[in-house]
Design brief:
Elements (H helix, E strand, L loop, with lengths): L12 H8 L1 E4 L3 E6 L8 E5 L8 H15 L11 E6 L8 H20 L1
Parallel strand pairs: 3-4
Antiparallel strand pairs: 1-2, 2-4
Helix pairs in contact: 2-3
Length: about 120
Amino acid sequence: MLAKKNRLSLTTGYQKLKTSGKWLNRSFFNLLYSDKFPSNNPHVAIVVGNKVSPLATKRNRLKRLISEAIRPFLSSLPENFTLAIFAKKEINDKNLGEIKTELEGVVKQFNNETKN
């Protein structure tokens, strides 16, 4: 689980993110992100819906895998960065290494966008 300072509230934070954010589609997940949030820490929300897996235990495992995969990259994200990760069905049979590789590419892309 991510530290509380890095978690995004889906009730209030997601509504703001939905209005000001941009979408990015990847093979394992869709991402909604914005760098316009006044904050001292990057915030992340992880969503794994019933369509990904009907079993709650499988959905919870996927959330834990995604949070462990994103944790090493939190320090490289800008302070005011906010990210919501929506898992796709394709993530079901992936391991931590594959998810981490996909997220590494995403973080590099975000860092290139924010520098330009």
